[in-house]
Amino acid sequence: MTLASTDLQINLIIFLLATFLGLELVRHVSRLLHTPLMALTNAISSVSIVAALIVLSDPKDNLVLILVTVAIALVFTNIVSGFAITERILRLFKQRKPTK
Fold first, then answer.
1. Sign of CA dihedral 65, 66, 72, 75
2. N or C: the chain end with fewer CB closer than 10 Å?
3. Contacts of 45 (CB under 8 A, 6+ apart)
């Protein structure tokens, strides 16, 4: 087993553990905290997309290029849908105009 494949395996394990932990944390969030949490995840996603663009500037091989491209697409989808959901939730809390 080469050093590169060992690093890939370790990174994959860390990614899977972080995904599981993130899902468990988000699942137990109160509904009152949902909108601030969405705003926070949008901010984290924007940092992720900047990091992915930095990696994309000098890809080491085709696998890195493919993974970074997929990551950018997923993060962009997360940001756009997160803002759409947050806007929809905030519209629910706006005061309605009284009917005459």
1. negative
2. C
3. 75, 78, 79, 82
Give the whole-angstrom CA distance, residue 11 versus residue 71.
15
Which of 44-53, 72-81, 87-96 is least confident? 87-96
How far is residue 46's CA from residue 52's CA, in Å, rounded to a whole number? Answer: 10
Tens-digit pLDDT profile for residues 27-45: 777 766 766 777 777 777 8
Q: Which of 9, 81, 17 is nearest to 45 (CA)?
A: 81
Distance in angstroms (rounded) separating the CA atoms of residues 79 and 58:
24
Determine contact, residues 41/29, Cβ cutoff 8 Å.
Answer: no
- Residue with tokens 């890195």, as numbered in its chain: 64
| CA distances to 12, 18, 26, 87, 95 from 92, in Å | 40, 32, 21, 9, 8
Q: Retrieve residue 77's tokens.
A: 């989808």
Give me 51's structure tokens. 């990091």
